[in-house]
Amino acid sequence: MIGSNLERDGDRNDRETAHATALIHHSYTPPAGFASVQPPVHKASTVIFPDTKALQARGWKDKAGYSYGLLGTPTTYTLEERIATLEGGVQTLLLPSGLAAIALVDLALLRTGDEVLIPDNAYGPGKELARTELARWGITHRCYDPMDPSALAAMLSPATKLVWLEAAGSVTMEFPDLSALVRIARAHGALTALDNTWGAGIAFDAFDIEPGLGVDISVHALTKYPSGGADVLMGSVTTRDDSLHLRLKAVHMRMGWGVGANDAELLLRSLPTLALRYHAHDQAARRLATWWSVRIEAQQVLHPALPASPGHEAWQRLCTASAGLFSVVFDERYSAMQVHAFVDALRLFKIGFSWAGPVSLVVPYDLSTLRSRPAWRGTLVRFSVGLESVDDLIGDCEQALAALG
Ligand SMILES: *Cc1c(COP(=O)(O)O)cnc(C)c1O
Question: Which of 166, 185, 164 is nearest to 174 (CA)?
Fold first, then answer.
């Protein structure tokens, strides 16, 4: 009884093993003459080498071949090339989030004893990374007022190796004089890295701010406009200089910061509509910001395309478009609790981080936590305008204002 069972199991095992091998080694050739519009998704950790000579000859510095999924697949190479094109750069690295892209730049270009300068109004988690992890490794940071180029000039020291830039600044939407900041950093011999998430490669050219003047590195949270779906996290680091790219790429490889092919596929699917979506968000945000600018509840509306907004002239000089973001500083007679009641009363605007998806979002902030100089007090609500009807969004703001008290 036992014996016959074993025999049957043995038969089944042989058959299953042969079957398993056949399924794994079944021949597969991508179909010739199948010209689909979207590129296929190539998924790999392992990439097979034809022989040991090819294994030993593998390299990581260029796209001449493939060696391991973490270092690139046809799918991620395609996305890298398209992001480089979008940004006006030459080489792009992909990372699992926008924040990881910021971290890569810091880790690759800074060492113990160096200093990095960060705009005072920059994306918060980037500042937090400097305050905690970089500090632990003996890298110091200071925050400069991006609206005062002379403040940056005064802060540069022999230890300054990297200057971060952001235009417009996260949440406060102040638009800096990028040309002046880049010129100052460059004259000092410090590298410049721009968080280009807001401009998205559409509003201005990071590598050609002026003829002959551009940033060294453009970082982009692809999570935002390139995705547009509020469902993918990815970041990119784009350059125009081969040696700088290789410094970044070596650290990217050693840290293991690759991206999955399915996420890359979602980005490749969304990129063709990026410009259309960006301009639609832009138009809607301008209409809504203009509506807010005459409301008595608003002390100030921060949107670089509005003439009264900080940095409007710099925005006008450099940009041909604006993202779907603006912030409202509420009149000081309203407490934070009253502003939170307004936020809670919104129906179409959802409460949540990130932006550039189809759903409109809001986040309230205590202004004093966003900016250390100049001192700025009060409660601000950052609006990320989605793709709903603008009339409906205005109606939503109007009905929620009743909750302000
Ligand atoms: C969202 C964002 C990031 C970070 O991107 P994640 O993919 O969410 O990590 C960085 N910079 C700016 C300006 C952002 O808006």
Answer: 166
Q: Whose CA is nearest to atom 8 of ligand 1?
A: 98
> Which of 272, 288, 303 represents a domain boundary (last residue)?
272
Query: Do 93 and 208 share a domain, yes or no?
Result: yes
Asked whether residue 152 falls in the same domain as residue 207, the answer is yes
- Residue 266 is predicted with a pLDDT of 97
User: How far is Cα 62 from Cα 48, in angstroms, rounded to an integer?
Assistant: 18
Instruction: Give the residue numbers spanning the domain of 216.
Output: 52-57+71-272
284 lines ligand 1 (CB under 6 A): no
Structural domain includes residue 62: no
Q: What DSSP string runs through 384-399? A: E--SS-HHHHHHHHHH
Instruction: Classify the C-alpha dihedral 243-205-237-41 as positive or negative.
Output: negative
β-strands 217-221, 235-239 pairing: antiparallel
Residue 349 falls inside a structural domain? yes
Beta-strand pair 325-330/298-302 = antiparallel
Lowest average pLDDT, out of 60-69, 150-159, 250-259, goes to 60-69
For range 11-29, the mean pLDDT: 74
Helix axes 98-109, 242-255, angle to 10 degrees: 110
Pocket lining: 222 vs ligand 1, CB cutoff 6 Å: no
Number of domains in the chain: 2
Average pLDDT along the chain:
94
Ramachandran area for residue 347 (φ above 0: left; ψ -120 to 50: alpha; else beta): alpha
pLDDT tens digits, residue range 330-365? 999 999 999 999 999 999 999 999 999 999 999 999
What distances in angstroms separate CA 229 from CA 182, 189, 357, 359, 386, one per listed residue? 33, 39, 5, 9, 10
Higher pLDDT, 98 or 29: 98
Q: Is the peptide bond before 374 cis (omega within 30 degrees of 0)?
A: yes
Taking the CA of residue 221 as reference, the ligand 1 atom at the shortest distance is 5
Q: Would you say the CB of residue 195 lies under 6 angstroms from ligand 1?
A: yes
Chain centroid offset of residue 119 CA: 16
pLDDT band of residue 12 (cuts 50, 70, 90) is low
Predicted local distance difference test score (pLDDT) of residue 10: 55
Which two three-digit tokens encode residue 8? 């049957």
